[in-house]
């Protein structure tokens, strides 16, 4: 490939929660653009290993790295391992997260804490771990995966909406802090995407969601990965503190 088609050549990316779904597509997209990719996973070792092989098929390097990104010591190990085997990170995609489906009145404190830890604490820990490296380089791309429910709120998903909304605020504030250091920080807020999270829906519910989306279909992981790949480019350096929502027109 020519340099114009591999604009991330020589860069290293860390993608959290990259063993399947949107994270898998993001890892592949960054590899396709030339980046070395650390494929983070929590439990799904075999899936992560497969994703790493898929990334390497694009002529780059990839490494599966197990880490619980809600734990500071694991995050430190993730960044150190990626730095040692792939190079110091230029790109961080905070994709790991968990969903929650319950009314607030039925949400336990334990469930609330779990959702906040996975969707908001983890991006904080990961950003804090890579920022010294990026500040030293005077370059970096941090991309936080939020949700349309972080923008609009979702009934029955109060904890998830609160976490993803908090992640948007973190994005906007951190972008202002890091702009002078050549580091951009943006959020991607997907709409309804056809991943494992929809596995429990029956065909009628899936069709209803498709019809509610103006473009007439559910999103795909690649729809989201394309946006992340764009924000990761060196040429995207004037875009920071933004929330881009690939949602098929579901919310505007």
Detailed description of the structure:
α3 runs parallel beside α4. The protein has helices at 21-32, 45-56, 72-85, 109-137, 148-152, 158-178, 203-212, 221-232; strands at 12-15, 36-41, 62-66, 91-94, 140-145, 183-188, 243-244. The termini are far apart. The protein has one domain (3-242): 3-Layer(aba) Sandwich (Rossmann fold), CATH 3.40.50. It has 252 residues and is of the alpha/beta class. The chain contains 8 helices and 7 strands. It is globular.
CATH class: Alpha Beta
Structural class: alpha/beta
| Tally of DSSP β-strands | 7
Summed up, the helix count is: 8
Kindly give the count of domains: 1
Keywords:
252 residues; alpha/beta; Rossmann fold; seven-stranded parallel β-sheet; 7 strands; NAD(P)-bd_dom_sf; protein biosynthesis
Task: Give a quick rundown of the structure.
This is Elongation factor P 5-aminopentanone reductase. With 252 residues, this protein is of the alpha/beta class.
């Amino acid at each position: 490939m020519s340099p114009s088609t591999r604009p991330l050549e020589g860069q290293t990316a860390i993608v959290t929660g990259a063993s399947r779904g949107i994270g898998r597509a993001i890892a592949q997209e960054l590899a396709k653009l030339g980046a070395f990719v650390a494929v983070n996973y929590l439990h799904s070792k075999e899936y992560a290993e497969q994703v790493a092989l898929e990334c390497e098929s694009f002529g780059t390097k990839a490494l599966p790295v197990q880490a619980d990104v809600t734990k500071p010591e694991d995050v430190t190990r993730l960044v150190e391992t990626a730095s040692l085997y792939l190079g110091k990170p230029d790109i961080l995609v905070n994709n790991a997260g968990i969903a929650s489906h319950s009314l607030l009145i039925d949400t336990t404190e334990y469930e609330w804490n779990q959702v906040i830890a996975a969707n908001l604490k983890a991006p904080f820990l990961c950003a804090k771990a890579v920022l010294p490296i990026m500040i030293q380089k005077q370059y970096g791309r941090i991309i936080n995966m939020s949700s349309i429910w972080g923008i609009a709120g979702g009934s029955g998903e109060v904890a998830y909406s609160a976490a993803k909304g908090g992640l948007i605020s973190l994005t906007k504030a951190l972008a202002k802090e890091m702009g002078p250091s050549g580091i951009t920080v943006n959020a991607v807020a997907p709409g309804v995407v056809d991943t494992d999270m929809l596995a429990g829906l029956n065909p009628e519910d899936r069709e209803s969601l498709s019809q509610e989306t103006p473009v007439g279909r559910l999103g795909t992981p690649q729809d989201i990965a394309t946006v992340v790949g764009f924000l990761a480019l060196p040429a995207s350096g004037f875009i920071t503190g933004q929330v881009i929502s690939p949602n098929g027109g579901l919310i505007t």
